[in-house]
Amino acid sequence: MLHIGLAIALLILCGSYKEYPAMSKRTGIKVITIILTVLTGIKALTVLFGVMPAYYGSESDISNSGLSAFSSVMFALIVIYYGGVITLSVIACVKGYKCMNNNELTTEAFSEQQRVNAARAQQIYRAQSTANVQQSFTTENTAWQCKNCGKYNESDNKFCIYCGHIR
Ligand SMILES: [Zn+2]
Fold it and tell me: How crowded is the C-beta side of 160, counted as CA atoms within 13 Å?
């Protein structure tokens, strides 16, 4: 089931990547493709060296023809299921590799990444300059006026430096 999920996720991601290339999607495709390739390889080996010998080994032992027929059906279903899963996984992996190796898409994804980075840098710059403006604004306006002598003191002062009146 994991294979099917990964294969479908990979196919969806590839479709999304082709429509709107982005580096994060390319990384996702790369990771899923590698994982799926390994998992599919393991599954294929399991079927080749595990399920098939188990079937052919058990077939000779079973004398009951009814049980043999049942295991033949089971075997056919298992082969169809595994065959389907492996085929789907291989198709998804091939698509993944094609997406990754498509230079046109990579270039687009890269320039998109640069656009995003530039926009982010600009946003941070704006946020910072806004913060700076607010900072200086607050500093200027936290000066307090002495109730006793009417002069202005810095915000940090606990008492008036001109007359000693406590704030
Ligand atoms: Zn004062």
Answer: 15
Q: What is the pTM of this model?
A: 0.61
Distance 136 CA to ligand 1 centre (A): 24
- CA nearest to 114, candidates 106, 103, 126: 106
Map out the domains of the chain as residue ranges.
Answer: 2-101, 108-167
Bridge partners of 159, per DSSP, are 166
Instruction: Give the residue from 125, 156, 160 showing the smallest Cα distance to 138.
Output: 156
The DSSP call for residue 145 is E
58-82 pLDDT tens trace:
665 555 566 677 778 888 888 888 8
Distance in Å, CA 142 to ligand 1 centroid: 16
